Amino acid sequence: MKYKLIEMPSETVLLQGNEKRYMDQPLKEMMDAIFEKINYRVDIDAHRVVHGADLFDSSVLVSNEVMERIESISYLAPLHNPINLEGIHLAQQKV
Fold it and tell me: What is the pTM of this model?
């Protein structure tokens, strides 16, 4: 899982990393560790979702409707989109 902490508006990168996730490791555990490592107040988080089909052709703010639409096309990227959605839900609890 890649992450980057950017201070705005200067766009200064404060911290970045790429953590390996083991198959039996709960995503929540990994994200908790990353947020603990960041140790800053996070105001906004961004996610890169693998497949938006023809529903998304640019960046969007993630709403419940957007998550439902991503879920509806998760069959296009079954190894990526479901775990991305889980990550979005977990991050929403932190931000």
Answer: 0.81
The two three-digit tokens of residue 93, written as one number? 């609890």
What is the DSSP secondary structure assignment for residue 66, as one 8-state letter?
Answer: H
Sign of the torsion angle spanned by Cα atoms 53, 57, 62, 64? negative
| pLDDT at site 24 | 87
Q: How many whole angstroms separate alpha carbon 70 and alpha carbon 9?
A: 30
CA atoms within 13 A on the CB side of 1: 24
Name the average pLDDT for the chain.
90
CB count in 10 Å sphere of residue 50? 14
DSSP string, the chain: -EEEEEETTTTEEEEEEE----TTS-HHHHHHHHHHHH-S---------S--TTT-SS-----HHHHHHHHHTGGGSTTTHHHHHHHHHHHHHH-
